[in-house]
Amino acid sequence: MSAISERIPGREAVKAKGWFRAHKWLLARRASQLAFLALFLSGPLFGLWIAKGTLASSLTLNVLPLTDPLVALQSLLAGHWPETAALAGAAIVLAVYAALRGRLYCSWVCPVNVVTDTAGWLRRRLGWKDGVSLNRRTRLILLAGILIASAVTGTIAWEVVNPITQLHRALVFGSLFAGGIAWTVLAAIFLFDLAVAPRGWCGNLCPVGAFYGLVGRFGRVAVSAPRRAACDSCMDCYQVCPEPHVISPALRGAGSEVIQSPDCTACGRCIDVCPQDVFALGLKGTAGAAPLRQGERL
Amino acid sequence: MSAQSDKQGVARRRFLATAVKATAGAGCAALLVGEVAAPSRTLAATALRPPGAKGESHFLAACVRCGLCVRACPYDTLKLADLADPASSGTPYFEARQIPCEMCEDIPCVVACPTGALDKGLTDIAQARMGTAALVGHETCLNVLGLRCDVCYRVCPLMGKAITLDMRHNERTGKHASLIPVVHTDACTGCGKCEKSCVLEEAAIKVLPTELARGRIGGHYRLGWEEKAKHGGELVDGIIDLPDRGYTPPSLGPSLGKEFKP
After folding, report:
1. Strand ranges (DSSP E) for chain A?
2. For A2-26+222-283, which CATH class?
3. B70-79: pLDDT as tens digits
4. Res. B104: pLDDT tops 90
5. CB contact under 8 A, B64 and A80
C-alpha cells in the first residue's frame, strides 16, 4: 500500500526518459495556453493587435470572427438571432473542434485548466487521496440546466457565471490586476478541486467541457496505447489523468488501442509520465493507428 | 417469457427513473443558474449601456460579453463590468460622471459588435438613447440658485435642443432672472457630458435610465388640448363654458361676471 501511495507519478518517467521528455506534452500544452492568451494580450500590452475580444467572441487580424458555439446557442435559446459575424464565428469553431477533438479546448486553450491542473498537482504532492466523487454525467445535466435557464430567463445565463470567460476577460482586459474580484471564482474552483472533489470542476461539473465533449466525439485527434504490451501497471497514467476512466478500454481492453471516449482531453500527460512509453498522440484512422509513436527505445 | 418481460419491465423502470432523475437534476441546475442570471437584468441606475443597446432584457439575450465594443471605443468610455461593478458581470457599460460618451459620428462600438446586441440600425449618433438627463438637484443647481453656471447647457452636444435654459423670475432678489436648465427627452441621447461637467461635488444633473428619468403618464390619460386638436374642435357639441370665479370670459359680457365676487 505504502509503495503505491508514496510513489510520485512521473518520477520514474524522468529517470527513464529524462526531465524534458517526461514533460514534453505538458510543456507543449502550457505553451499553447500561453500562446492563445498572448494573441489577445499583445494588443493591450504592446499595441500589436492580433485577436480582439475574449474567448466568448473575438476578431482575429480584423477579418476572422470566432465565437464560442455554446454562447451562440444560449443566445438563440434566449430569443436573440445573432448577426452573421457571430454565427459564422460559431460555425468555424464548431467545425474545427468537431474535426479535431472537442475537448482539445479544455487542455490546450482553456485558462482554467492551469488552475485545476495546479490543484491536481498539489493534491498528488500532499498525498490526498480521498474526496467527494461526483458523477461524470453531472456536467451533462448542468449543460441541460444552463440551456433551460437561458430559454426561461431570456439571458445568456451561463456567461453570468462562466469561470472560463470570467478569468479570460479579467486577464485580457486587465481587471485582474486592477482590483477586480474575478479571481475569487477561480479561487473557489481551486479549493473545490483541491479539498472537495479531485478533478471535480473540469471532470464532473463544467458544462462548457461537456458541450465540447459532445461536439467533438468523432474528432480525429486521439491518444492511443500502441505499446500497451509493455505496460507494467505502475498506474502513473491513472494518477495524472484528468479523466482516468478513459484509459482502461484502450490500455487493458482487447479491442482498439485508441482511446475512444470523447471525455479524453488529449492532454498527453499519460504519454509524459509513462516510463514504458506506452502511449502516443496522433490522428485516428491513419495507418498504424499511432503515427506519432515515440520511438521504440526502452 | 414472463421472466423476460419482467426483465424488460425492470429495465424500463430503471430507464425511466434515470430519465426522471436527470430531468430533475437539469431543473435544479436551471433554477440555480437562472436565479443568478435573472436578477442581473436589473441594471444599476448609474450604469449606462453603449449606444444602440435596445433595452436590458434584449441586451442580455444578445450580448456575449466579448468586449469588442470596449476595444473599439477611442475614449476609454466603455468598460467591461467586473463582479462587483453595477452591471451584470462582463457586460459593457459606462458611468457618465467618470467618462461620458463622446458621441463619435461613425459609432465604432456599434460597428464592432458581432452579435447585434448593439443595433447596427443606429447610424446617426444623435438618435442614440443611452439614457436621459434629468435635473435632480433642484436645490443645488447653481443656475436654479440664480447664478450663471450654464456648464451643462454649454457642453451638451445638442445644445439648445436637448438642454435649453428657461428664464424664470428670481424671487430672492426680486429683480434678476434664473436660467433653469430644462432637458428635452425627445432630443437627449444620454451621452452624459452634462453630468460629467456639472461643477458641483455631486452632479445636480444626472443621466438616468430613460424610464426612470422621464416618468410615465397613465395609459388612460387623455390630454384635453391634444384631443381637441386631433378632433379639430370641441369634443362635445353645444357645451356651455361656465364662467370661472373672478374671471369673466369676454364672450359672456361684463354684467354676468360682476355677480361673482370671491
Report:
1. 51-53, 57-60, 64-67, 221-224, 280-283
2. alpha beta
3. 999 999 999 9
4. yes
5. no
